[in-house]
From TrEMBL:
Species per Swiss-Prot/TrEMBL record: Gluconacetobacter sacchari
Primary location group: membrane
Annotated EC: 2.7.13.3
Membrane topology type: Multi-pass membrane protein
Protein name: histidine kinase
Top-rank taxon: Bacteria
Length: 460
């Protein structure tokens, strides 16, 4: 019994795999075709159930009752004709039946029926009338449904002739069955066409998104696509536009960095070349002068190492780290402690309520370290704070330094824009790159301490 469950699951999985391939061959390959099939099948099933309910229950019941009524009138007429055999009595009986029952009767003496049975029409009327006549008359009969479009002729074989009964169709048919079938088929086609038009519009938006993604993957410079269609398709289009914008910004930043590498490294390399050219020949060199030249070259090499490290850090990004749930308050405390040990001044760390966010802790720690070192380099003291708002986690870094003019608050995020005092000009660029990789944003504004505030917003 223990192995019954896994064995049964394995057999069901095998059956599913065997059935999956033939079903795939039958199903349309396009999304539009599959969506239309999903709409068409329920429509057909619904109309089929409606037709069966009407045709199989209501129409059959009414048809049996109407056929039984006509058969009863004919049986009553036959009984009267059998009792009253004179020509005058028969003429009177037929006249009364014609007036009272709307059945047109004609007596054909000496005639014999060539064949018996009923011609078939669409609907249950022919079978119900034949069953009613067969069960009540007990004589050979013939039913002609197609000879006259307005009248159904019922011919009953009598011993001395044939009784021809003309029954109006309205006494045997509720309504033309083809009209109901046409309504069912027509409504199905109409609903299917309307659904096709709506779905085509939705598929057009998906196709446009797929085409834009293909062109973007080929390196074409395309415009942002206009969100349209269903809400999910609109969200996909907006996400694609944002992705395209981030990739363009990513490529532009790294292109600018690569363009600036040769410019920034050329200066220390030129100084090194000059220093080497000015070193006196061996034997005539002064020890103090030589030591001075070596010190300058070591400083140039250290500057180049710092620049290269900045470039490599910027190029690496922080995409390899896995986002985890982080206590932001604890993270700020750790960053503040490390900054104090490095000689910086932290005025306060304010986290009124517990703040948690899903982020890459090492990457965010690096962002905060860059911001704190910038503040320290400009001689400012720092206050850290964190809170929640409608957009997510908000981290603010305030300092009381000289600040930045408002017209330069966006420009300093460009590579090499703010490089001075030994900096490479990539600190804020790297910070924005990391924050936007989290799906957030970073901005500068005047601080409540009189200097600069860096406001980081991260999704919760």
């Amino acid at each position: 019994m223990a192995g019954e469950g896994p064995g049964r699951a394995h057999s069901m999985a095998g059956l599913y795999r065997r059935m999956d391939r033939p079903v795939r061959r039958v199903l349309p390959r396009s999304l539009l075709g599959r969506m239309l099939l999903i709409v068409l099948i329920p429509l057909l099933v619904t109309q089929g159930i409606s037709l069966e309910l009407f045709y199989g229950n209501y129409l059959k019941v009414v048809s049996r009752r109407m056929s039984g009524s006509v058969a009863a009138d004919i049986v009553l007429t036959l009984d009267l004709l059998a009792r009253y055999r004179s020509a005058g009595d028969r003429a009177w009986v037929m006249n009364q039946v014609r007036v009272r029952t709307q059945l047109d009767m004609d007596w054909e003496p000496g005639r014999r029926l060539a064949h018996t049975g009923s011609t078939h029409v669409l609907g249950p009327m022919d079978e119900d009338l034949a069953d009613a006549l067969d069960g009540s008359i007990g004589r050979p009969f013939q039913v002609d449904w197609i000879g006259d479009p307005q009248t159904v002729h019922i011919r009953v074989q009598m011993p001395d002739g044939v009784l021809d009964v003309g029954a109006p169709r309205k006494r045997l048919s509720v309504a033309p069955i083809w009209l109901f079938v046409a309504w069912a088929v027509g409504s199905t086609l109409l609903l299917f066409i309307i659904a096709s038009l709506f779905m085509r519009n939705q598929i057009r938006a998906i196709r446009r998104l797929a085409r834009a993604a293909e062109l973007f993957g080929l390196g074409r410079d395309i415009e942002p696509i206009r969100p349209e269609g269903a809400q999910e398709v609109r969200k996909a289009a907006v996400a694609f536009n944002r992705m395209q914008e981030r990739i363009f910004r990513f490529v532009a930043q790294r292109t600018a960095v690569l363009a600036g590498v040769s410019h920034d490294l050329r200066t220390p390399l030129t100084r090194l070349r000059l220093s080497l050219a000015m070193i006196p020949q061996a034997g005539t060199i002064d020890a103090a002068q030589f030591q001075s030249e070596v010190t300058d070259m070591v400083a140039d090499i250290a500057e180049m190492e710092r620049m290269i490290e900045s470039y490599l850090s910027f190029a690496r990004g922080e995409g390899a780290e896995t986002p985890v749930a982080v206590d932001v308050g604890q993270l700020l405390d750790e960053v503040a402690s490390a900054f104090r040990r490095a000689g910086g001044t932290i005025l306060s760390v304010s986290v009124p309520r517990p703040v948690e966010g899903v982020l890459r802790p090492d990457a965010i720690r690096r962002v905060l370290d860059n911001l704190l070192q910038n503040a320290r380099r400009h001689g400012g003291r720092v206050a850290l704070s964190a809170s929640h708002d409608a957009r997510g986690v908000v981290i603010c870094v305030d300092d009381d330094g000289p600040g930045i003019p408002r017209d330069r608050m966006e420009a300093v995020f460009r590579p090499f824009e703010s490089g001075r005092d030994g900096g490479s000009g990539l600190g804020l660029t790297i910070a924005r790159d990391i924050v936007r990789a989290h799906g957030g944003d970073i901005a500068l504004r005047p601080s409540r301490l009189g200097g600069l505030q860096v406001r980081i917003v991260l999704p919760a």
